[in-house]
């Protein structure tokens, strides 16, 4: 296979990637922007810490007070925002590739709705019996069960992308109705906890409760998905083309959906139902690096992290002393983008 001077071929015994130099430059630029945004976000708060002092505090060379503020209070929140944003961005990229629709995201195939219903059910039926540490388990189980239901209901001599989205949208609406019903009929305290989760917030996270449990999901699954990038690219070309090149379409589609659900379910479990990141990040990334998933996966991860970091920073700095959930800002940014993408798709049709 010939390559131009603008492309770089990476080969191994089992895998090969063709990555453009432009994509590498954009990826490195986004990585630098993410690091700078992490430093800025860590320094902003009721007590402002200069960027240089933030760096010193991270490595243990700051004052006692700045080190405590940075390493104990702010850095876990920033890292969780990065991990959740990356997870949702990559999960959305997978689904948009499989379904071949730029409007697809974990919100539309039941993953987010299932995780939310699992969490709300935990609040109302198990919060007085089990430790709050079991909440992520309930959310992840809810995400998997809901997606499996969507998959089973969509099966008819295989899965078609259109059936998957239509049934996912319907089941999401039903699960949302059940969640709100439990909120309206239950105790006010549990309703407030559920509402915060349904809005999406990373307030009050810590190393032990969020960073350490979430990190393995991201550190393992995103590299695995990167090595499956060529399968996503083949799926995005359509079922007929995928079958003609020897791809096991249904098997690969199921595996990729499960990888997407695992990432999105873990993200929702620790950050709540933060909406639109899975829609916005892949769409923006596709504009930057094109449709090749070898480039799109890392760029979607970085873009999702940046979007959520900015949303969280706005939530805790624009309306002091109130801490507005990050999900409010992602929805405010995502809704216009959703309308724009819908309008563009309509014109193409």
Automatic annotation (TrEMBL):
Superkingdom as given in the UniProt entry: Bacteria
CDD domains: TM_ABC_iron-siderophores_like
Gene3D superfamilies the record matches: ABC transporter involved in vitamin B12 uptake, BtuC (1.10.3470.10)
Keywords: Cell membrane, Membrane, Transmembrane, Transmembrane helix, Transport
GO molecular function list: transmembrane transporter activity
Gene Ontology biological process terms in this record: siderophore-iron import into cell
Topology term for the membrane: Multi-pass membrane protein
InterPro entries given in the database record: ABC_BtuC-like, ABC_transptr_permease_BtuC
GO CC annotation: plasma membrane
Transmembrane regions listed in the UniProt entry: 78-99, 108-126, 132-153, 165-190, 210-229, 254-281, 293-314, 326-343
Annotated localization: Cell membrane
Main location: membrane
The family this protein is said to belong to: Belongs to the binding-protein-dependent transport system permease family. FecCD subfamily.
PANTHER family found in the cross-reference section: FERRIC ENTEROBACTIN TRANSPORT SYSTEM PERMEASE PROTEIN, FERRIC ENTEROBACTIN TRANSPORT SYSTEM PERMEASE PROTEIN FEPG
Protein name: Iron ABC transporter permease
């Amino acid at each position: 296979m010939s390559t131009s001077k603008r492309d770089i071929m990476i080969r191994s015994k089992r895998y090969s990637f063709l990555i453009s130099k432009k994509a590498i430059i954009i990826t490195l630029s986004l990585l630098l922007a993410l690091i700078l945004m992490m430093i800025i976000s860590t320094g902003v708060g009721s007590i402002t810490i200069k960027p240089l002092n933030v760096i010193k505090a991270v490595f243990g060379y700051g004052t006692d007070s700045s080190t405590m503020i940075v390493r104990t209070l702010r850095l876990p929140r920033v890292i969780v925002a990065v991990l959740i944003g990356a997870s949702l961005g990559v999960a959305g990229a997978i689904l948009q590739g499989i379904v071949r629709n730029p409007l697809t995201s974990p919100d539309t195939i039941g993953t987010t709705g299932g995780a939310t219903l699992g969490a709300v059910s935990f609040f109302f039926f198990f919060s007085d019996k089990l430790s709050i540490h079991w909440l992520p388990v309930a959310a992840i189980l809810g995400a998997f069960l809901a997606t499996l239901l969507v998959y089973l209901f969509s099966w008819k001599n295989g899965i078609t992308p259109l059936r998957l989205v239509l049934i996912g949208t319907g089941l999401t609406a039903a699960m949302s109705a059940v969640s709100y019903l439990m909120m309206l009929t239950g105790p006010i305290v549990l309703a407030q906890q559920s509402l915060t989760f349904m809005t999406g917030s990373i307030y009050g996270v810590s190393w032990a409760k969020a960073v350490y449990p979430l990190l393995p999901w991201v550190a393992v699954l995103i590299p695995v998905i990167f090595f499956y990038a060529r399968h996503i690219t083949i799926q995005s070309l359509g079922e007929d083309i995928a079958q003609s090149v020897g791809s096991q379409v249904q098997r690969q589609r199921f595996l990729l959906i499960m990888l997407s659900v695992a990432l999105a379910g873990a993200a929702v479990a620790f950050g709540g139902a933060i909406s639109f990141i899975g829609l916005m990040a892949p769409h923006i990334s596709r504009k930057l690096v094109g449709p090749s998933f070898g480039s799109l996966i890392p760029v979607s991860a970085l873009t999702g992290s940046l979007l959520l970091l900015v949303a969280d920073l706005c939530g805790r700095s624009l309306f002091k002393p109130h801490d507005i959930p990050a999900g409010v800002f992602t929805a405010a940014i995502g809704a216009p983008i959703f309308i724009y993408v819908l309008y563009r798709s309509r014109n193409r049709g």
